[in-house]
Amino acid sequence: MKLIGIKYCGGCNPVIDRENLVQEIKKLLPPEFILANSQTNKQWDIGILVCGCLTACADKPDFKKLAKKWIIVAGDSVDLKSAPAEKLADIIAAQIKKSI
Questions:
Q1: CB 96 within 8 A of CB 46
Q2: What is the model's pTM?
Q3: I need a labelling partner for 9 at 20 to 30 A (CA). Which of 18, 51, 74, 100 fits?
Q4: Is 97 helix (H, G, I), strand (E, B) or coil?
């Protein structure tokens, strides 16, 4: 089992549907990947920071220790690379599968 942690921004100015994106990612991952949005005693294998806009103001160093690796979604970009909104889930799922 691989633990994928989800952290959301405050949602003040979203240009993407953050919750729908996470549901799409979940559909693309095999069953051994568990998505969690609450902290556990165990460090997440990968964390996904889902920010609704390009500002990504929730990208703070204080939570970085929650996961071994982070994927940062900021509006229609993944890790600072622009992508069409309809491709975001595919890109993120591929990164997760490649990273673990």
A1: yes
A2: 0.93
A3: 100
A4: helix
